């Protein structure tokens, strides 16, 4: 058997390694048009900011190492220009010599990855101070430019993971950074209210964030020195970085009839097979599917690419591995904040037809007396069966630990009530006695069964519609005077039982405190006293005020 792989990095090399582990009989060949076959794309921003001291740290393996370790023939700077699926032949161009050769295959794996998306306005002209962050070659050029040209101002176009990581690293390197985004929020894979926390963190650290903006005109000949926005704003700059996402490299595959799915990436089954016999697709060129909805999903991450490659290598050599789908789990560090998400966002869940309960859980990552720092967990559950559908977390410490627990729970179809019963590790330096994950499960389970929650968005909608309701602030007088929900009355929890005797039990009632716990206690009191409809404001006044700020910013 002859296995030919087009492309390397995380997916292609994983195919080759797994296939070789399964058998010594197969001939395995890899063609890659780049010079480097194995490197960390995700590590590039940290090389630019010199957290990673040398580019070699990101390129641990080369073609000779791979040949010696796995007996795989790797041809770098070779581009496959044509596939003949009938004859099972490939046409390959040697980019160094210009010569063309023909090769054959028994099994062909497409692992050509994805290319950076270039906004139309930047197409058609070259400038020496515009860069993308996708390959080792691009990383070296950008690093060299910063080192020798010493730019003072940078504009980053795009606010996904790479754009935000580059913003952090350039600020730490002493540059003035402007982040421009066409959409109304940073981080499109999060709900807007959670992304707003990231936006505020960027601003606090000196990044100028411009949302709902598009570039109208580019000024400068050899170098870009000014960008003009469609609303008339001008941005003077010494450096431009494009971080506007990626697009799967499907052209070669489409030319021979390989089917592309609704995401724009190649459609594959659970064995990574395309619609054409003996042709497989893995990594950033292939779409996956959601573990929750079963629908197609495209999240180009090295972890997923590695997994897909291993599955294809196993299947081709007679193994039984199958792709079980993904949740789109991701995490990023922006200055002192970690941001993570898994599963469906609130918007995605509603768009998919779920009737959802939403919880904002604001808790310290560990004991307060050992320096616990606040975590905000937004968790989404299906009201129909209590299943956990997704979570988003922001915080300083412990975000990675909690998102991985929640991703594992969703993968095994856990209900929110199951979270409370998890036997998680506890000691004061690492967690609270009631870990944020346990509390998330407990509070969401309560919300589904007895103690309904109301989000700030829902409350503000009711306020704007002038719905009749009574809103009770259960905090101290000083806290109430400093900041409160619109039209709330102040009744401390200790006075609530007495004051409740004079209140209308049939009127919609919302209780709240600063973050949610005392509001829940007040909700229990009122429900036990016979009040008909009582909601606790999820995340309390703190969450409400943050949402209100975001809404005002959006409307300005």
TrEMBL record:
Which keywords fit this entry according to its UniProt record? FAD, Flavoprotein, Oxidoreductase, Redox-active center
Q: What domain of life is recorded for the organism? A: Bacteria
Q: Which family does it belong to?
A: Belongs to the class-III pyridine nucleotide-disulfide oxidoreductase family.
What are its cofactors?
A: FAD
Q: Which Pfam families match?
A: Pyr_redox_2, Pyr_redox_dim, Rhodanese
Report whether Flavoprotein shows up as a keyword of the record: yes
Protein name, please? FAD-dependent oxidoreductase
User: Oxidoreductase: is it a keyword of this entry?
Assistant: yes
- What InterPro entries does the record tag this protein with? FAD-bd_OxRdtase, FAD/NAD-bd_sf, FAD/NAD-binding_dom, FAD/NAD-linked_Rdtase_dimer_sf, Pyr_nucl-diS_OxRdtase_dimer, Rhodanese-like_dom, Rhodanese-like_dom_sf
Q: Where is the Rhodanese domain?
A: 465-553
């Amino acid at each position: 058997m002859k296995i030919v792989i087009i492309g390397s990095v995380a997916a292609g090399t994983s195919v080759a390694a797994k296939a070789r582990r399964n058998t010594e009989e197969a001939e395995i060949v890899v063609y890659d048009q780049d010079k480097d076959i194995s490197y960390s794309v995700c590590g590039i921003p940290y090389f630019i900011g010199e957290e990673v001291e040398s580019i070699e740290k990101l390129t641990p393996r080369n073609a000779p190492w791979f040949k010696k370790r796995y007996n795989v023939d790797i041809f770098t700077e070779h581009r496959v220009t044509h596939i003949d699926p009938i004859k099972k032949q490939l046409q390959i161009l040697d980019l160094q010599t210009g010569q063309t050769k023909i090769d054959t295959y028994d099994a062909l794996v497409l692992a050509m990855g994805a290319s950076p998306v270039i906004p139309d306005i930047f197409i058609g002209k070259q400038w020496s101070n515009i860069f993308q962050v996708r390959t080792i070659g691009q990383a070296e050029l950008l690093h060299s430019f910063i080192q020798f040209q010493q730019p003072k101002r940078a504009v980053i176009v795009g606010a996904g993971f790479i754009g935000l990581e580059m913003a952090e690293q350039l600020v730490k390197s002493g540059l003035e950074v402007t982040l421009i985004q066409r959409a109304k929020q940073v981080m499109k894979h999060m709900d807007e209210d959670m992304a707003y926390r990231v936006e505020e963190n960027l601003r606090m650290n000196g990044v100028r964030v411009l949302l709902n903006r598009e570039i109208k005109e580019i000024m400068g000949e050899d170098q870009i020195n000014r960008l003009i926005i469609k609303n008339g704003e001008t941005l003077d700059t010494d450096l431009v970085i494009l971080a506007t996402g990626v697009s799967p490299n499907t052209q070669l595959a489409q030319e021979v009839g390989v089917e592309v799915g609704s995401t724009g990436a190649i459609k594959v089954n659970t064995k990574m097979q395309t619609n054409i016999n003996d042709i497989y697709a893995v990594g950033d060129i292939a779409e996956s599917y959601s573990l929750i909805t079963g629908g197609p999903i495209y999240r180009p991450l090295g972890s997923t690419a590695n997994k897909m490659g291993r599955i294809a290598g196993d299947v081709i050599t007679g193994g039984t591995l199958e792709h079980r789908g993904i949740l789109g789990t991701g995490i990023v560090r922006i200055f002192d904040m970690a941001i993570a998400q898994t599963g469906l966002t609130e918007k995605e869940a509603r768009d998919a037809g779920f009737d959802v309960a939403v919880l904002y859980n604001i808790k310290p990552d560990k004991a307060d007396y050992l320096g616990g720092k606040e975590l905000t967990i937004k968790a989404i559950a299906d009201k129909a069966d209590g299943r956990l559908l997704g979570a988003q977390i922001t915080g300083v410490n412990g975000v990675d630990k909690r998102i991985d627990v929640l991703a594992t729970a969703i993968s095994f179809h856990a209900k929110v009530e199951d979270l409370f019963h998890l036997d998680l590790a506890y000691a004061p330096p690492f967690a609270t006695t009631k870990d944020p994950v346990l509390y998330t499960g407990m509070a969401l389970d309560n919300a589904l069964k007895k103690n309904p929650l109301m989000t700030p968005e829902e409350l503000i909608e009711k306020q704007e519609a002038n719905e009749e309701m009574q809103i009770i602030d259960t905090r101290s007088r000083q806290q109430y005077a400093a900041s409160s929900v619109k039209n709330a009355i102040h009744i401390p929890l200790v006075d609530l039982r007495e004051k409740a005797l004079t209140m209308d039990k049939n009127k919609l009632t919302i209780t709240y405190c600063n973050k949610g716990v005392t509001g829940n206690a007040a909700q229990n009191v009122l429900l036990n006293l016979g009040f008909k409809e009582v909601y606790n404001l999820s995340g309390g006044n703190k969450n409400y005020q943050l949402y209100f700020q975001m809404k005002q910013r959006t409307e300005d």
